[in-house]
Amino acid sequence: MSNKLITIKIGGEAGFGIKVAGATLGKVFLRLGYEIADYTEYPSLIRGGHNTTELTIGPKIYHVVRPINLLVALNQETFDKHLSILSDDAGIIFDPEKTKPTTDKFKLYPVPFGKILKEIAGSDLMKNTVALGATLAVLDGNIEGYLQVLKEIFGKKSDKIVNANIAAANAGYSFVKENLQGEFPYKIEPQEVKDQVYLTGNEAIALGAIAGQCQAYFAYPMTPSTSVLVYLSKHGPKVGMLVRQAEDEISVINQAIGASWAGARSMLGTSGGGFALMSEALGLAGITETPLVIFVSQRSGPATGLPTWSEQGDLRFVLHTAQGEFPRIILAPGDQEECFYMTAEAHNLAQKYQMPVFILSDKNLSEGGKTVTSFDQSKIAIEHGEVLSEEQVKQAKKYLRYQVTESGVSPRTLPGTENGLFTANSDEHNEYGYSEEDGENRIAQVDKRARKLETVAKEIPKPVFYGPNNADLTIVSWGSTKSTILQAMESLKDKSVNFLHYSYMWPLGTAQFEPLKKAKKIMVIENNSTGLFEGIIRENVGRVSEFNFRKYDGRPFWPHEIVKKILNI
């Protein structure tokens, strides 16, 4: 069995199923027992543009790696644009009738996609199917697994479509086997099949919402958060979830607040530009202490910025948005596994502490696919917090919705609870919920809400350490950079380097910052230009990082970039 990692890049014009081709190939490799990570790029155009998808497969994978070992060029632009990121022993599959080679440095596989499709009376849109058949032949793989996946994908359509795609795949495979013989150093071999699933970060978020018993999800389409809405609109109603696309982002958050006030475990989804419209209503959730889970998938700003590219630029935005001061919790999952479990946990935290809880992702994680061990729902406990029954309200004799408590959490009732009525408006209020402008009451209520953060900080887990103890250099990062850094750590095993990963971003207490105080030297890695988390460390720990690595071109960090940066220190 080869331990080589293999990276394949497929590129072509939008509309020719580039992303679908990558996902389809991923399913084939999944069934062969491989671990997989993928990455897609596409411009913010309504039509056209250059689209690509990359997959890395191997026995153990955290993130897509470069250089590329096999390039599948569905047009001339793909051939010309990506030569610089190919390995010296890479191969290129292309259509010689459409693409003219500009180099003979690599192993060339001219496969006439168009001619093959004419011979089998196939549509030009099926050239990706021909190309994937050719890809499996170049990698010396078996075609049967791919044919089975095609049957499943097109099975709900006509037999004619299924048979046409099977014919196209077989034709591409046979052409390479019969006409393009030659040794290629990268081959796929069946591995031991694992108990794993292959899914994107957003699919894991959606499944986490279902597992966490979310009862209402609201959103307005906005890249890269939209696929959660799409997934839940298909699967949410099957488990009793209300899924609603509102008319705009202001309606989204107000409807979510209303659903939560009525007792539903409520969640909404958006990206930075959409969240900007929600700031006033977020303050309403803060002062009424209404549980709310807010999914924000970051992209490159400001304004429209790079709407189909990625960045970690919204950490301070979600931390400080809305008028005045009120507590919120921020979670930033680092991979698909954390997306699932932390989304379920976000609902518990919102219910227990009666405040907004953010799930902060980004385009790279939201749309990137990866294999993970099948999720275990038995690990998820459902918590509803301090919701009083009618009997408990009767025993209390006097119900104070905003009672000043040591923990900061006040007892809550749901609509219809006898003697559990209270006022929930946007004004400062007393313990009953009535508007109150007295100074002492104001201080008491602000301090009460703030004490929740002290309570939460005692509960949330410490950041996770990877690598050796007492290393000379500690990499510090958060969110989606986790997978890239773990992949880089595979090449740094003989170096005195470890990695401290943060997924619970706020609040941060003594326990969360203690590892930073003990580190010898730290390097903070994040996808933004100003070091947003690095600044939080400096403010709260008083620790100035010795090194940092920032990237903000819309692209992810690549493992080899991190390795090179560290080796140059």
From TrEMBL:
Record flagged with keyword Oxidoreductase: yes
GO MF entry, a single one: oxidoreductase activity, acting on the aldehyde or oxo group of donors
Protein's GO biological process: response to oxidative stress
CDD domains: TPP_PYR_PFOR_IOR-alpha_like
Keyword annotations of the record: Oxidoreductase
Annotated Pyruvate flavodoxin/ferredoxin oxidoreductase pyrimidine binding domain residues: 208-447
Residues in Pyruvate/ketoisovalerate oxidoreductase catalytic domain copies: 15-173
InterPro entries: 2-oxoacid/accept_OxRdtase_asu (IPR022367), Pyruvate:ferred/Flavod_OxRd (IPR050722), Pyrv/ketoisovalerate_OxRed_cat (IPR019752), Pyrv_Fd/Flavodoxin_OxRdtase_N (IPR002880), Pyrv_flavodox_OxRed_cen (IPR002869), THDP-binding (IPR029061), Transketo_C/PFOR_II (IPR009014)
NCBIfam families: OAFO_sf
Protein name (Swiss-Prot/TrEMBL): 2-oxoacid:acceptor oxidoreductase subunit alpha
Organism: Candidatus Doudnabacteria bacterium CG10_big_fil_rev_8_21_14_0_10_41_10
